[in-house]
């Protein structure tokens, strides 16, 4: 494995800083899908790609795509990348890191006039966070040829439709489907991304090998009890929705641990939410994730059974409405094998971990084997201005991505 | 005990309807302290008092007070009454019932040209609900001579100060203290009020003898954990504020039952309250009431100990800030003895119950022995347009109040 010189990581760092300056909210990093800030970011990346000898363009879905040819014209393609959009008031690394690290990999090859048995493409997706258009992940969906037909009609918070936003971005919404790479699918899609969690930091490891992207079930739970005067209804005559909801929330935690899933109740609303009124109804969110679809299903079934028992015991109703449910996506065995080998050369322990967050790989897996490398981030923080990595970890990440790419291209 | 004729209850019923029509929100019953609607209600009650032969006036705190002399000029006074203000969108009976029933008691005496060894005064307090001026209960506080010095400076939701509201009501805020009856304290204060709870309905009893008004401790509890990504932070690395708060809420229920207190968490706020973010902090209200101050203190101490254990176990902070704490006020033994005797003549079982809600008696107890009779209300509902009693229960309530008054006056 080649060892990066410090200047390579410094250059990547400066590029990350330059992208961070592309924002639609001064003082914050806010670069939503198809925004003017994203257009500036795309232009920067396009320039860097061309500078280091790649052919590059914006695809019909707004993704910036650069190509560095392999040893032969008909060589297969290894695609590296991530997304260039951010959440509102986000960080510098969630997304851009994978694009800039990919650029460094190619730059290293190009500066050594070296070509691999595979071409390398770098992609910077235009819409992964889903902040602007109701959870859409258009960039990689378009590349995977799975754009939902209603996508152009979706509207952002200002009432601007996705179709109009695409036009304002200089593209034609009718041609988005042409971004599909189903016909020219890559040999592999490899993404470097910050972990967005505390595992690597806790294990004192710069990098981790991602085993897969967890499936996620999301539900809205409604507890319907009986409101009443906080001072006058005896404890044994109550149907207190908030006490019942509390029992439900503890059941979620207990069952999730039992099935080794990750489950979160992050949102709760209580009605009438007055200090002197027994809660008449409570709604709360349920988010449960696992790399094992079977575990997730079994946990959800157990949770629903626990809710029913609580409802019966407390003489009220608990209703669970599943709003979305996606299966887990496993990373490719060959690619993760390569990454494990690469990480074994870097440090004493190889940390393997699932991704609990969604990524572009979820869509890219429809057309290519996928793999991901996680980079340790401070306090597990992401989607926040304090999102932080070290330049040393960046350098190690570039090395690992480069080695993975070379080994994957060797076939 | 005299038996009411039907026409007496019907007249009281019509008076309650006439008061319900005094509102500042058409289509609802909203008669806040010192509002134009309360002024109309006061005028109605003043008229009825004079009609039935009482001397009557508005006192310097806006309370309407009528007097029916006893057998001698120096006879002691039994005061009957309740409040004429309501919450926003309230009901017909919470408050007015006690005033109108008192009027019926006097009317019965007057129409029989009968006088008791005690004078009877009827009071309709101007401010009990505390809806307008931050929980103030000015009417009975003024009569008890315990008005907080800052009261005139308090402002309502529109920025109008209580002092200005009093002036608009036609009174002088500087003279509120003249409403004090410390010097001419009544022999007894007896209030008929709807139960506002489900106990009498559950026991199939029209009336109940109130043993006392529960003391109440109110606190704001803050749970400070650590926000994080719902998909990426393993269950055993979390400091989830909402799961901890849920455990706290169940502890409140458990301890309250153990100490035979009534405790309610009616309000909860979660931050950032997003479906995909582990709760960083949660605040919730705590309301705990008991007729036994010792039980309440012991329960609160146990709850705080439980919170501390939860905090330690979950590696987060739980802070409890007590915002108010009042002792219980017991009803007078002699008066409740009379009421028990009266109720025993009415029905097979005499229900004795505490009042979990606050009442004017809390303040009146500073200057006089107090007692209360509760009237069964439908579904235990109060502070709501569907607040409901039957005309039969109203008739029985008037009878009981009349008998209580006669026996109390007999000394």
In short:
The structure is a homodimer of 411-residue chains. Chain A is built from 11 helices and 16 strands.
Question: Which characteristics define this entry?
Answer:
411 residues; homodimer; Alpha-Beta Plaits; Aminopeptidase; 22% strand; alpha+beta
Overview of the structural elements:
- Two copies of one chain form a homodimer.
- In chain A, helix 1 (6-20) runs antiparallel to helix 3 (96-111), helix 3 crosses helix 11 (391-409) and helix 7 runs antiparallel to helix 8.
- The first copy, chain A, is built from eleven helices and 16 strands.
- The first copy, chain A, folds into two domains: 3-214 and 328-409, Aminopeptidase; 216-325, Alpha-Beta Plaits (2-Layer Sandwich), CATH 3.30.70.360.
- In chain A, helix 3 (96-111) links the parallel strand 3 (77-83) and strand 4 (119-125).
- Chain A is 35% helix and 22% strand.
- In chain A, the strands form three sheets. In chain A, strands 1, 2, 3, 4, 5, 6, 14, 15 and 16 form a nine-stranded mixed beta sheet that branches. In chain A, strands 7, 9, 10, 12 and 13 form a five-stranded antiparallel beta sheet that branches. In chain A, strands 8-11 form a two-stranded antiparallel sheet.
- Chain A has helices spanning 6-20, 36-51, 96-111, 138-144, 162-168, 199-203, 241-258, 293-314, 333-346, 361-364, 391-409, and strands spanning 55-58, 64-68, 77-83, 119-125, 188-194, 207-213, 215-224, 228-229, 262-264, 268-271, 277-278, 281-290, 317-325, 329-330, 352-355, 370-375.
- Chain A is an alpha+beta fold and 411 residues long.
- The two termini of chain A are 17 Å apart.
- Chains A and B meet through strand 8, helix 7, strand 9, strand 11 and strand 12 of A and strand 8, helix 7, strand 9, strand 11 and strand 12 of B.
């Amino acid at each position: 494995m080649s060892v990066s010189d410090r200047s390579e990581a410094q250059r990547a760092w400066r590029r990350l800083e330059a992208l961070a300056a592309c924002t639609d909210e001064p003082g914050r990093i806010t670069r939503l899908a198809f925004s003017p800030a994203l257009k500036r970011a795309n232009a920067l990346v396009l320039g860097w790609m061309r500078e280091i000898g790649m052919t590059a363009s914006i695809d019909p879905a707004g993704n910036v795509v650069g190509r560095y040819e392999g040893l032969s014209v008909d060589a297969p393609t290894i695609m590296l990348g991530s997304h260039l959009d951010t959440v509102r008031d986000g960080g510098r690394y969630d997304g851009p890191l994978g694009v800039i690290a990919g650029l460094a990999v190619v730059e290293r090859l190009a500066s050594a006039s070296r070509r691999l048995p595979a071409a390398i493409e770098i992609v910077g997706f235009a819409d992964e966070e889903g902040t602007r258009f109701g959870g859409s992940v258009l960039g990689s969906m378009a590349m995977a040829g799975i754009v939902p037909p209603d996508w152009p009609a979706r509207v952002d918070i200002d009432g601007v439709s996705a179709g109009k936003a695409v036009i304002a971005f200089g593209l034609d919404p009718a041609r988005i489907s042409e971004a599909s790479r189903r016909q020219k699918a890559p040999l592999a899609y490899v993404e470097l991304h910050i972990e967005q969690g505390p595992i690597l930091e806790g294990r004192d490891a710069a990098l981790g090998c991602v085993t897969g992207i967890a499936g996620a079930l999301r539900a809205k739970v409604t507890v319907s009890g009986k409101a009443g005067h906080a001072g006058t209804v005896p404890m044994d005559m109550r149907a207190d929705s908030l006490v019942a909801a509390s029992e439900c929330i503890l059941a979620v935690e207990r069952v999730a641990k039992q099935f080794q899933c990750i489950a979160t109740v992050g949102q709760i609303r209580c009605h009438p939410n007055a200090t002197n009124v027994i809660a008449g109804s409570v709604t709360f969110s349920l988010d449960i994730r696992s790399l094992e679809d079977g575990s997730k299903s079994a946990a959800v079934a157990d949770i629903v059974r626990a809710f029913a028992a609580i409802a019966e015991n407390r003489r009220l109703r608990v209703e669970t409405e599943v709003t979305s449910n996606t299966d887990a996506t496993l990373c490719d065995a060959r690619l993760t094998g390569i990454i494990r080998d690469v990480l074994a050369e870097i440090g004493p322990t190889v940390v393997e971990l699932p991704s609990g967050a969604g990524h572009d790989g979820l869509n890219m897996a429809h057309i290519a084997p996928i793999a991901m490398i996680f980079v340790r981030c401070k306090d597990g923080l992401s989607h926040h201005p304090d999102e932080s990595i070290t330049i040393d970890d960046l350098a190690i990440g570039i090395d690992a991505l480069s080695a993975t790419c070379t080994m994957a291209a060797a076939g």
